Amino acid sequence: MTENNEPPQRRKILVVDDEKEVRRLLCVVLRQKNYQPFEAADASTAMQMIVDMDFDMIVSDVNMPGISGIELLQEVKRQQYGIPVLMLTGASRVEDAVECMKNGAVDFMSKPVDFEQFTSCIQDTLEKPADNAANGENGNRQPRQLAEYRILDLLGEGNMGVVYLGRNEAGDRFAVKVLKSCYAADDKRLNRFYREINVLESLAHPNIVKFYECGFDDVEQLPYYVMEYVQGQSLKMICRNVVHKTMHEKIDILRQTADALTAAHRIHIWHRDIKPDNILVLPDLTVKLTDFGIARVMDSELTVTGQFLGTPAYIAPEGLESSTRVDGRADIYSLGAVAYELLLGRKQFDARSVGQYIAAVENRCPPEPRKLESNFPAALQAILAKMLKKKPADRYQSADQLVRDLTACLEAPDIQRLKLSADYENSDWE
User: Fold this and answer.
1) Do the beta carbons of residue 267 and residue 300 sit within 8 Å?
2) Does residue 217 have an active-site annotation?
3) pLDDT < 70 positions in the chain
4) Are strands 12-16 and 57-61 parallel, antiparallel or unpaired?
5) Do residues 101 and 162 share a domain?
6) Is residue 243 domain-shared with residue 362, that is, in the same domain?
7) Is the pTM of this model over 0.85?
């Protein structure tokens, strides 16, 4: 009891699961342990609740329709530093467990839940001193310090590197990326990591995540670099309508992203992985383009011959054949695929496998926007058509041309009456 005889505030725990019975049962168990549980039937509802309330912990199912639990975990990490997340699954797979731990989950449990293990994990997590958050109790040995940056949290992990939330002596927060220790002696991956640093050092644009410095940590014996820490919503959340934006705001997001590509392409840097996850939107609607990890510098010898790089849902047709053939026009196609999803709320193609999606990118045209939404602006449909041409020579030849047309849409008194250049064809639709 506190000095004023009021009971201590009960810890708030959000339970996210599309199975009503599971949610209710977990909430009963939590109440018995004197926690204050809240329910969300899907990740979209959970994200809205997280914005409105302060939770001490989140318990989430992995496999949910719409936004998955892993995507929710990633967004919580990006937005809400300090909230631990426990992941549950009814279809336990090693791949899911690895993905959850890579993205900073406190633990991964299979259903049916062992309630003693469940409550013990929650108690241990909530009673753990905040200063020990970087100790790596979950199997990931997190460094306490990288150069002058104290490590506060794991923000995410990729194939080659790990990104931490770091704080300098002045108390400012940064994103600190370090090469995985298992690749310290791998010349190929070391070269790619240093190339990524060189790319970011070359870029200075308000819509590209800012690079600060790089170095080599003598204790960890690993290279690292430091970027601005961006607490923005990923564009995926807007595409999925978790975060609602107007048509005008969506066009502005696309224009800013195209402007970032203009700056990169001007110095012959191709991003090669444009997708909603790599486009962050701040509360004031400022866009930050991130993750130049597989970017290619024109004439660079550091390529991956015979493979395609990027994400199948957003990759250009020429990128499926060879990563060496792509240039800035492939980024324009990828942004077109993002734009289609952002403006219409669905991907270009319905496919049940990566193979089916790749085949669709190569051989099919997407459904016509104005057939999906009768009031979809003709000017925007023309822009999408030109971005999504199968042949690079038929697309916008530079990102600044795309910026010009998107700006025209933003400045038009009535976008429904806006007409663009006559050479824009609208016949490239199913």
Assistant:
1) no
2) no
3) 1-8, 80-82, 128-141, 293-311, 322-324, 422-427
4) parallel
5) no
6) yes
7) no
